[in-house]
Write a structure and sequence with these properties.
Layout: E1 4-5, E2 8-13, E3 24-30, E4 39-43, E5 47-53, E6 59-65, E7 70-79, E8 83-90, E9 111-113, H1 124-127, H2 132-135, H3 187-196, H4 198-205, H5 207-222
Parallel strand pairs: 1-6, 2-9
Antiparallel strand pairs: 2-3, 3-8, 4-5, 5-6, 7-8
Length: about 220
């Protein structure tokens, strides 16, 4: 591997003509083993540039002249030990997607579509609340503090614990006074569970008869 190389870059996007927070680019720089202290990231309205040296002595360097302008002040950065994750706010509110990430229309060997985050332009509203940028909270701004990645996730959207195999809603069993639930309501469910294992229950009831047969055989041996 050469001492200096271009990192792999993946990207996806969302767009909006009315909501700035839904009008952005995902850009990930694959820079394994590069610590934040050994990296230099620069984000301007028209370009993203990065230089960083890994613990193995490899220097990653890339410059990304963007197709259109972004808003650095409202962009987000998260630097991990595997990659640099960027959520770049597009400056112009526009429903249409950018036709490409970079200014020049040509093939770049290091640039790939991030299919894990990509959605089609006419389907992006369906991504809605599950969207990566909204749920992956806690980015600092360029050069800012990094925060926790779970802070903005609404766990109510992940589905309740009820249903098949889930925990029962005990609040539905509580009395009018708000006291302890009436656990007798579970009697029917317990009986049903016992019925499912009925064959085993019948075997248990036969055990005393087996013991009686054993006692008779012992008396015969003694006599």
């Amino acid at each position: 591997m050469p001492d200096t190389c271009t990192p792999e870059v993946t990207w996806a996007q969302r767009s909006s003509d009315s909501e700035p927070e839904r009008n952005y680019l995902y850009v990930n720089l694959k820079t394994p083993d590069v610590s934040k202290s050994d990296a230099d990231l620069n984000i301007t309205p028209t370009e993203v540039s990065f230089t960083g040296k890994s613990g193995k002595g490899v220097t990653y360097k890339v410059s990304l002249p963007l197709y259109a302008e972004i808003d650095p002040e409202n962009s987000k950065v998260n630097h991990t030990d595997r990659e640099v994750e960027l959520v770049l706010r597009k400056k112009e509110l526009k429903q249409e997607f950018w036709p490409r990430l970079l200014k020049e229309a040509k093939k770049y060997h290091f640039l790939k579509t991030d299919f894990d985050k990509w959605v089609d332009e006419d389907e992006q509203d369906e991504a809605g609340e599950d969207d990566y940028a909204n749920n992956f909270g806690g980015f600092g701004g360029p050069g800012g503090e990094e925060g926790g990645g779970l802070s903005n996730i609404d766990f109510s959207k992940l589905g309740g614990m009820g249903g098949a195999g889930g925990m029962p809603d005990l609040s539905a069993l509580a009395g009018a006074g708000g006291g302890m639930p009436d656990l007798s309501a579970f009697a029917g469910a317990a009986g049903a569970a016992g019925g499912a294992g009925g064959a085993e229950g019948e075997d248990d009831e036969d055990l005393p008869e087996l013991e009686e047969d054993n006692q008779k055989s012992k008396i015969q041996e003694v006599s």
